[in-house]
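Hey, quick one: can you model this chain's 3D structure?
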Amino acid sequence: MHPLTRRQLLALLPAAAFAADSRYTVGITTNTRGGWESDVWLSFREAREVGYRYVESFIHYFTDYWEKPEELRKKIDSIGVKFTTISNGAPMETHFEDPAKHEKLFADHVKLGRFIKHFGCRHLKINLGPRRPEGTSAADLSHMARACEETGRQLRAIGIRLAIHAHMWNQFENRREIDYMMEHCTPENVGFVLDTGHITMAGIDPVELTRTLGHRIVEFHLKDTAPENKGGAKSRLDRPDMMKHPPFFPLGKGGVDFPAIKAYLDKIGWRGFVTVELDTSPFRTPKESARMSFDYIRDTLRIKA
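Sure thing. Here's the predicted structure for all 305 residues.
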């Protein structure tokens, strides 16, 4: 792997990135099923009411604004939030494993990179497409690495850092795939988004992966798991009914050792985004789940939002 030193990280990001008085920038991804998924503006308003100042979402909510980003800026300014980033997804090309689709993929992602620059975003978090039944082959990984390296190179040329997100049930999911991508992509062009919930359910200890990747991590997605999965689930989780049997929970459930992650980040002087994300909230409103995680970050991790 290619761990990124703090000096290398500082060289990649503008000085303005560190103007805030906290090394941690707290945000929330607000597409939580159970009340927020169908009304992005409601999700932003309620997240702001809880205390979040940064929000993250997916491009399909904002395709009407491709050619009028200033209108979108006015809308989020009126709510009082800023974007951490805006993730890829439909209608964009996301099949990184298919070389026949790479040219469109590059164009789509550079277009999105230029779009998010209007809102002061510094990195583009992406998913690498839905997982095929046969999984991810060695050839797939080779194509994915080349496509991510080139996408990252083109984005870096416009001042945006690419950060790839390992996600259960996607082509980029497990430790074998993470190790390959980190070895075959350069730190300058390809960073990493560490999702504590998905990493845990993929059988990986998120504390250990944090220590391994260090400054190469651009952003954390924070979600918890059941206590019995602490250190990494013992078997792969088939996709459950996320509303009936959710594997992910607000922070504090006990499956992820968040204090240990933060202790290491404090030790190495890491700076970046810590973004709460809960896929579903079937037992309470998304706003209440968001509040539980916000309180945990403030009271247990001692991070000021």
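One thing worth noting: The longest helix spans residues 138-156.
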